[in-house]
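Lab notebook, page 48
Experiment: co-folding of the full assembly
Goal: obtain a model of how the components sit together before planning crosslinking
Operator: M.T.
Materials (sequences as entered):
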Amino acid sequence: MNIPYTVEARPDSGLANGKLGIWLFLASEVMLFGALFSTYILLRVGADTWPHGELSVPLGAVNTIILIGSSVTMVMAWASLKMNNWGRHRMFLALTFLLALVFLVNKYFEYEEHLLAGEGPNHNTFLAIYYTLTGLHGLHIVGGMIVMGYFLGPGAGLWKRNPAQFTNRIEYTGLYWHFVDLVWIFLFPVLYLL
Amino acid sequence: MHPDSEDVQKSVRSYMIVFAMLMVFTLVTVGVARLSFAVPVAIAVALIIAAMKGAMVAGVFMHLSHEKRWVYGTLVLTVVFFAALLLLPVITSLDSLATGNPWVR
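Observation: model returned without errors.
Model output:
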């Protein structure tokens, strides 16, 4: 059975089904992170004192640069497909995967430093919301890496069978990835700087 | 090449410009945080810069600057509910302060 509107746009929405689907998913993600940001505000406003300078700003800034860089390589992976350049697409997608991995490695070192110092989520309210927000964000990074890994490996064959559908799938992966970057753009100042 | 590959090539230039601007804004965010502003000012400046960066990512990388109406409709609804979600703590704090509020016993 063929699923309709995977490539061509639906006449009513003007969008392929996958595109509307990923935007609805991202809308639900906004609410998920929104609830946690709201929690952060509630905790911070209600606290008599709030720790400042507990996290390494250089490490957070480097991770911001890494994630912004990965957004660029992701959009270039899609643009390369549009320009029919398979080799460049593979290079940029692999680079995005690699940058995501570097981000997680940095995060691991950051977590390790705190956990070895006995500063787990139960240490104080700030660290509780810090681990919750960055942990959930980290899981989204892992999710993105699984999807990218699929398109670098077994999912790559679709390019030969149906290049337009493959290009659309990479576009949807990119939309998700840019959202993950966008969340971090707000997490960085909120957790590291303020 | 795809028929729209020329448009994509033009977009690549804007991706690079936005990338450079995002880098600059990240450095500005860190720099501003080192200045000893009052807390409300520091929060406002950091969030304004973050919002500008977010707008660039959404507008250019996610192609929101030229999307279909259904996507905008979805996002308008999301923004409304997101704003309500962020207002909840404000309403909560107003409740706890409202000694003269007949709704709070």
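Interpretation: Chain A has a mean pLDDT of 94.
Next step: discuss with group before ordering constructs.
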